[in-house]
Design a protein that fits this description.
Distance between the termini: 29 Å
Largest sheet: 10 strands, mixed
Order of helices and strands: EEEEEEHEHEHHHHEEHH
Radius of gyration: 17 Å
CATH architecture: 3-Layer(aba) Sandwich
Strand content: 15-25%
Number of domains: 1
Shape: globular
CATH topology: Rossmann fold
Length: 281
């Protein structure tokens, strides 16, 4: 495995991020780092049809106390998008672990948004030595909590989609009136292939269908914080209570926010996350 400089990666309103491309055994992975390198590590994992950029508004609020690491999962963002590799959640978790090893990270609090919480959980299952605690943000605990979308999915003949098609496809990801998805996030969706989009979404539902998240998390014994926008239009927010079966789990509901509180109100999202991290470090 090798590391090469991926060039500067500038986030709007934030300092320039250190960007690297890691060449792993089955694909290249894009990694971003912010904050002091000697601070405790905080790993952020995005959801399906997203990328490291989805964390842009939240990162400046975390770097005062943490080395913040973001990864573009295989098939997303600036990472490779091979058609002949597995996009199953355990394989994504394995790649994340390999990337952290390559960066010299021995311990990390792992934060997953939406389906990124499944990769975070898979990493904890595989590498309990590496994951010290977990934070899941609007990560559905089981298929019974899923709210089926009313709008039709984007078909292969419509790929690559227009801005308007992406906005319609992603509309249930937000609840705040008037919220407009940043252009750079629309552009990131178009960097995906139709194959990687559909495979990653199927992989998330498959992982959850094989075993619900609270059942996976209970035997791990890891400190757990669950943050849920109360007005989520993809997962019933009442299902956040299912995580209370995990010993010691904390559940924080954020009124007035939807599926993407990291974008809708990063400041409110950061408060419980930082308080939890201060105790878990």
């Amino acid at each position: 495995m090798t590391i090469s400089d991926g060039g500067p990666y500038v986030s709007d309103g934030a300092e320039t991020t250190e960007s690297s491309i890691l060449s792993l055994d089955d694909g290249t992975i894009h990694v971003c780092q912010d904050g002091p390198r000697d601070a405790p590590a905080l790993l952020l994992i995005h959801g399906s049809a997203a990328s490291a950029r989805s964390w842009d508004p939240l990162v400046p609020l975390l770097t005062g106390s943490h080395r913040v690491i973001r990864i573009d999962l295989l098939g997303h963002g600036r990472s490779a998008k091979p058609a002949d590799r597995s996009y199953e959640i355990p394989d994504q978790g394995h790649r994340v672990g390999a990337a952290l090893d390559r960066l010299g990270v021995e311990h990390a609090i792992v934060v997953g948004h939406s389906s990124g919480g499944y990769t975070a959980t898979a990493l904890a299952e595989q590498r309990p030595d590496l994951v010290t605690a977990l934070v899941l943000i609007n990560t559905g605990p089981g298929l019974g909590a899923y709210i089926a979308p009313e709008s039709a999915a984007i078909g292969p003949s419509q790929w690559p989609p227009t801005d308007e098609q992406i906005r319609q496809f992603a509309s249930t990801g937000f609840s705040r009136p008037g919220y407009r998805i940043p252009q750079e996030l629309l552009d990131e969706v178009r960097t995906m292939t139709y194959h990687t989009l559909t495979m990653t979404m199927k992989a998330s539902l498959g992982y959850l269908g094989r075993q619900e998240l609270p059942d996976r998390l209970r035997p791990l014994g890891k400190p757990l914080l669950v943050i849920f926008g109360e007005d989520d239009r993809r997962w019933r927010s009442s299902s956040a209570a299912d995580y209370r079966t995990v010993p010691g789990a904390r559940v924080e509901l954020l009124p007035g926010l939807g599926h993407s509180p990291i974008l809708e109100d990063p400041a409110r999202t950061a408060v419980p996350l930082l308080a939890f991290a201060a105790q878990a470090d």
